[in-house]
UniProtKB/TrEMBL annotation:
Gene3D superfamilies assigned: Single-stranded right-handed beta-helix, Pectin lyase-like (2.160.20.10)
PANTHER family: PTHR31375
Major place of residence: secreted
Family: Belongs to the glycosyl hydrolase 28 family.
Annotated protein name in UniProt: Exopolygalacturonase
Keyword Methyltransferase applies: no
Superkingdom field: Eukaryota
This enzyme's EC code(s): 3.2.1.67
Catalytic site positions: H241
UniProt-listed GO biological process terms: carbohydrate metabolic process; cell wall organization
Catalysed reaction equations from the record: [(1->4)-alpha-D-galacturonosyl](n) + H2O = alpha-D-galacturonate + [(1->4)-alpha-D-galacturonosyl](n-1)
């Protein structure tokens, strides 16, 4: 009988120890006071769970259960002792209904100087309509807005199967990062929503975007200065402004702009988008480059500018460089292969390059872009390169 009692006590101790370890490795934000009512600010409980995970020496999962959690603004800061922190989100993260209620006007959910963090599942509701309405009225003093999810100065990051709806500004930002994978991302905002880029990558290397559906009011994917070794595959874009490199050389970026290199985009579909593949630079003296780019195997469905290089970029004709100025950004070694479909405008291929720095080593092969109301056209200005095979429209290189 005594042996049985001792064995039972040992068993209970083992179960208790396992339960304690399990609780340490799996943190439910509700246990830290998060309220799933969508009205009570849960920023502090989320941070408390993060602090526990960050200081752990073992892998930790932070669980956000079903229902709605209001976050007014939060920064998950590192560096952490832990380099294996997983967010498992079954619920919805909700922003304040008005931009004035954000803790900081340009930040909502930020991860800074972290390593080995993954976000898995969940919906992020940016509730950007009030800010969009403000921006639609001339002379209103509106803040720029806050991106939905932003990673800065981080490495070995994974973003899987998230949905971002109606962001106030960009939906997802990768800035100053190394080794990031975004997979099965779903992004939704109205075509009229301003500055709601789907995924923005800047000053980062080793980023992979694989399988994404992006419907938004600005670039589906925007690629900023300092980006290298970027792989994009399996993206559906539209409505939106396409997949864009740039803009580069805008006033304020400095005389020397970090270049963009080694970018591959393949197996994409654009439907009703304003642009397909776009490279855009301002006509300033800022020096920089875009090189080693491949756009491969895309379908265009009624896209206004399927292929465009615009080195005289100046949206809304505001703050434009002086007339006759040319871009100091050098564009070279850009390949377009297997681009098929329909153009919503007569000019399906438009290469408007810099007079002082002509585009060089532009390659085109297997381009078939038709125009419903007549023959499609290609325009080339200050562009040098080669085209192979039968081309629709006829090549201008």
């Amino acid at each position: 009988m005594a042996k049985l009692l001792i064995s039972t006590c040992l068993l209970l101790q083992l179960i208790s120890s396992y339960s304690l370890a399990s609780n340490v490795n799996n943190l439910n934000v509700q246990n830290y006071g998060a309220k799933p009512d969508g009205m009570t600010d849960s920023s502090r409980p989320f941070l408390q769970a993060w602090g526990k995970a960050c200081s752990s020496s073992k892998p930790v999962t932070i669980h956000v259960p079903a229902r709605n959690f209001l976050i007014t603004g939060i920064t998950f800061s590192g560096p952490c002792k832990n380099t294996d922190i997983k967010f498992l989100i079954d619920g919805t993260i909700v922003a304040p209904s008005t931009y004035a209620n954000l803790r900081k006007p340009n930040k909502w959910i930020v991860f800074d100087t972290v390593e080995g963090v993954s976000i898995n599942g969940g919906t992020f509701k940016g509730r950007g309509k009030a800010l969009w309405n403000c921006k639609s009225v001339k002379h209103h003093h509106c803040p720029d807005g806050a991106p939905t999810v932003m990673f800065t100065n981080s490495k070995n990051i994974a973003i899987n199967s998230i949905t971002s709806i109606n962001s106030k500004l960009f939906h997802t930002v990768i800035l100053g990062c190394d080794g990031v994978t975004l997979q099965d991302v779903n992004i939704i905002a109205p075509e009229s929503s301003p500055n709601t880029d789907g995924i923005h990558v800047e000053s980062s290397t080793g980023v992979t975007i694989f399988r994404a559906s992006i419907k938004t009011g600005d670039d589906c994917i925007s690629i900023g200065p300092g980006t290298s070794h970027l792989w994009i595959e399996g993206v559906n874009c539209g409505p939106g402004h396409g997949i864009s490199i740039g803009s580069l050389g805008k006033k304020g970026q400095g005389l020397n702009v970090d270049g963009v290199r080694n970018v591959t985009v393949k197996t994409t579909v654009f439907a009703g988008a304003k642009n397909g593949f776009r490279i855009k630079t301002w006509g300033t003296k800022s020096r920089g480059y875009v090189k080693g780019v491949a756009f491969v195997n895309a379908i265009m469905k009624n896209v206004k500018n399927p292929i465009i290089i615009d080195q005289h970029y100046c949206p809304h004709d505001k703050g434009c460089p002086s007339k006759g100025s040319s871009s100091g950004i050098k564009i070279s070694d850009v390949k377009y292969v297997g681009i098929h479909g329909t153009s919503a405008s007569k000019v399906a291929v438009n290469l408007d390059c810099s007079s002082s720095n002509p585009c060089r080593q532009i390659g085109m092969r297997d381009i078939k872009l038709t125009y419903a109301n007549g023959r499609s056209q290609a325009n080339c200005k200050n562009a040098q390169g080669i085209s192979l095979g039968h081309m629709v429209p006829p090549s201008c290189l």
